[in-house]
Design goal:
The protein is an all-alpha fold. The protein contains 13 helices and 2 strands, in the order H-H-H-H-H-H-H-H-H-H-H-H-H-E-E.
Length: 389
């Protein structure tokens, strides 16, 4: 019977298994490192892609990854393909959306490792669905032609070796850190889950401020930030991070401190739930047939006949004077003033009085023997003689 291995032997073999993929990833890191030289803001002529435009495309790629429920490898590989293509080629802003969608489709085709995450077959979205959901304003044929251009300019075969991304280094460094810190922890605590770290690394990857750093620097900075929150074992975590930094020989202290500040600032923005200015607003474009299906009550509307309005009278209407909300004395005092009346033709106005005659209204001082004016057309009763005048 074979003798059982001692704990020290098993630990050394475990450490060797973690060191080998770490050294391989560090050796291939410069090959897949983009070097973006884009302006921070777009110029007035609008003929060059800016960093803000690149950030907006990265957020769209992350939305597509969430929409199709794909593993995080597809997102990081797509961003790496897009950044490396923008490093080598000078494209116009109108082509950026097509470049991003093409990079995402290439990442879905050549990203391995679906099996160890979920027991589902590899998902490759249709180009027509990608163009519709992403609203890139290009056709599926444009995406296919852009994929051939990207594969030709990158000079790498994605089918043989996937690109080395910050996610690649984060997985290896996370396992190596836990292996180094486990025997030294006197008060073991639960480490932050890897899924949470990957989610935060996606937020960092969407910002152009982190695109200038190496993947190993970003991964180490995020680990130092997360494990530094453990106040009990803070010194042990710090020693393990320094040991991993020494293994990554090209990570200098100055660059590492600068990268930590950038990652901490981005995480503060994420934790404070600040709205990103590059988040795309989705606008659903529906056809008339789809609108009719979404509105089932439209078929129940009744069509009532149009009501024909009656034509107005041929003669102008009578306008009656409007009584104001004033006292009767004020109204009587203003009765002597001239007022405008509009009468119908059936009721002609009374003849105008002579200029020498006074108003027919009797005053209290008037004598009862005075005759009534002759201009009144109606008969009057003479009370003195009891006869009709």
């Amino acid at each position: 019977m074979a003798s059982a291995q001692s704990p020290a032997t098993g630990s050394s073999e475990r450490g060797h298994d973690l060191l080998t993929p770490l050294l391989e990833a560090l050796a291939l890191e410069p090959k897949y490192q983009p070097s973006l030289a884009l302006p921070h803001t777009a110029k007035q002529d609008g003929g060059e892609i800016s960093m803000k435009m690149r950030n907006g495309s990265a957020h769209v790629l992350r939305c597509l990854k969430v929409w199709y429920e794909l593993p995080p490898d597809t997102f990081f590989n797509a961003v790496n393909i897009m950044d490396r293509f923008l490093t080598r080629m000078k494209a116009q802003p109108k082509h950026l959306s097509c470049i991003a969608v093409s990079a995402f489709h290439l990442s879905c085709q050549f990203t391995p490792g679906y099996g160890h995450l979920r027991d589902i077959p590899q998902v490759v979205p249709d180009t027509r669905d990608l163009t519709t959901i992403s609203q890139c304003k290009c056709s599926s044929g444009d995406v296919s032609r852009m994929e051939r251009i990207i594969m030709d300019k990158l000079d790498t075969d994605l089918r043989c070796q996937p690109p080395v991304t910050p996610l690649t280094l984060l997985r290896v460094l996370y396992a190596a850190h836990n292996h180094l810190a486990a025997p030294l922890l006197h008060h073991p605590t639960l480490p932050p889950p890897l899924t949470t770290l990957i989610h935060k690394l996606e937020i960092v990857e969407c910002d152009s401020a982190a695109a200038t750093f190496r993947p190993s620097e970003l991964a180490l900075s995020l680990l130092a930030l997360e494990f530094g929150q453990d106040s009990v074992n803070k010194h042990i975590h710090h020693a393990c991070i320094n040991h991993l930094q020494n293994i990554c020989k090209q990570v200098t202290y100055d660059t590492f401190d600068q990268c930590q500040k950038v990652v901490a600032e981005l995480m503060d923005q994420y934790e404070n739930q600040r709205h990103s200015p590059h988040r795309q607003r989705l606008v659903w474009k529906l056809s008339n047939r789809t609108l009719r299906q979404l509105r089932p009550t439209e078929k129940f509307t009744t069509r009532l006949p149009t009501i024909v309005e009656m034509q107005g009278p041929s003669h102008p209407p009578i306008i009656r004077p409007r009584m104001d909300s004033e006292s009767s004395e004020m109204y009587l005092s203003s009765s002597e003033e001239e007022m405008d009346y509009d009468y119908d033709e059936e009721f002609p106005p009374l003849p105008a009085p002579a200029t020498s005659m006074k108003s027919p209204r009797k005053s209290p001082s008037q004598s009862p023997h005075k005759k009534t004016p002759a201009f009144l057309p109606y008969p009057q009763l003479n009370r003195k003689h009891n006869r009709i005048a």
